[in-house]
Amino acid sequence: MSLYRALTIAVIVPAFTLAAGCGEKGRHDKSRSDRNSEFAVVVSENTALRIDPMIYSARITLMRKGTRLVITDQSKEKSWVGKDHSFWYRVRLENGLAGWVYGSTIRIFKGSQSGSIDSYVSNLREHEEESLRKNLSGKWWSVNKSGDFTNLCMEIYENGKYKSYARGGREIEGEYNFNFNDETIVFLGGTSFGQNLKYINRGNMYHLEATEGKYDIRFKKITEGMAEPPPDEEADTASPPVPPQEEDGKAPN
What we know:
This protein is an alpha+beta fold. 22% of the residues lie in helices and 36% in strands.
């Protein structure tokens, strides 16, 4: 072996070993960083993501219960918000948005507990679905902008079934479920008005509406002591016309 070749091998081998070692160290450090990272799940509905760690800071967006977060920083001191005394946490959402969230509105998981997040979110969804079924069950009549009853009715049952009909028209029955990401009730058998409905929580009251179709439709729940529109009452002229039904009773998409 020539002296030149021997010197070349002597230089390349240690350099390759060092590079491999750096690669292993990089992978090891990344793994260690993941284990030491903190994650969080939003536990309060309509939780604000804010620009700065203070309650009066500008709001970036509202986050739904069950939203997953990565914690990137923490305030130096706790602060009071109402009766809660907690840290503020700087977090990053899956879509890249970053900001500050108050500690009492999230549940924190260490990196080693990341596998528990799926189970926790699943339990949150189950409780949310149970609560929604209970709160939305009942009879709902469509209303116009003045709050007067019009010609559409939804009957929603806690067991996951529903009934939809227009005044004097044929009833459509089926099962429903929830799209939590869009806050929508999905009617699997169709409806007399051809749309699903968004559920909106305002305080302790829920509202149902559809705004993506040709007509805006809003529904008002019949509560105890409230008079329903009589069967022979004329439909409000300002209400949207009922879409034509196919032979199976479903409104066309």
